[in-house]
Design the sequence.
């Protein structure tokens, strides 16, 4: 497998999604992340999510990638409110009444605590739809043979990027930001 090609695709996609979210003021130019959240995706959620989403690609390509961002938002919320509970939560607990099909609405209402008709929920929906459309467009631009091994790996990288953008959006919504810290702030002494 050409991991350099996949890494380049993933980085390009992350940069494009970050640009879109920054233009709408939903992020400030930095892809917020934590190793905890990233590792939870990689070690726990990714296999089950990909298995669900891959079935939706043909009929609902945007949904197949966009729901990963909603999942990222839910995990970021859990990271702040109760990480041990979030880690113990099975993937299927993110499902809505119609399983994967309404995962987005379940996460927005039950985990993020927003009314579906609220302005904030609509803004999130619009942003994640735009990111999903951009992701699908970039995948198609690669002209990879459908249902090939490479297509699977590109899809897996795309949903990973969408998960990360969702987590970043939620971290930003909760007020997190990166700040440069001087060494003297950490040690209490001055560095010359």
Sequence:
């Amino acid at each position: 497998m050409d991991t350099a090609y996949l890494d380049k695709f993933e980085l390009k996609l992350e940069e494009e999604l970050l640009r879109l979210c920054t233009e709408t003021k939903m992020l400030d130019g930095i892809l917020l992340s934590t190793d905890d959240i990233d590792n939870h995706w990689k070690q726990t959620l990714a296999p089950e999510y990909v298995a669900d989403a891959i079935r939706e690609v043909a009929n609902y390509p945007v949904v197949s990638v966009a729901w990963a961002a909603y999942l990222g938002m839910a995990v970021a919320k859990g990271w702040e409110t109760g990480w041990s509970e979030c880690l113990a939560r099975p993937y299927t607990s993110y499902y809505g009444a119609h399983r994967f099909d309404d995962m987005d609405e379940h996460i927005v209402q039950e985990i993020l605590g927003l009314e579906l008709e609220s302005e904030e929920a609509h803004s999130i929906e619009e942003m994640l739809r735009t990111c999903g459309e951009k992701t699908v467009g970039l995948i198609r631009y690669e002209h990879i043979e459908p249902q090939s091994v490479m297509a699977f790996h590109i899809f897996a990288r795309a949903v990973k990027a969408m998960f990360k953008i969702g987590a970043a959006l939620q971290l930003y919504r909760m007020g997190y930001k990166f700040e440069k810290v001087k060494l003297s702030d950490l040690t209490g002494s001055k560095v010359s």
User: Anything to note?
Assistant: Helices lie at 3-23, 35-54, 61-81, 83-88, 103-111, 119-141, 149-173, 183-187. The chain has a mean pLDDT of 93. DSSP finds eight helices and no strands in the chain.
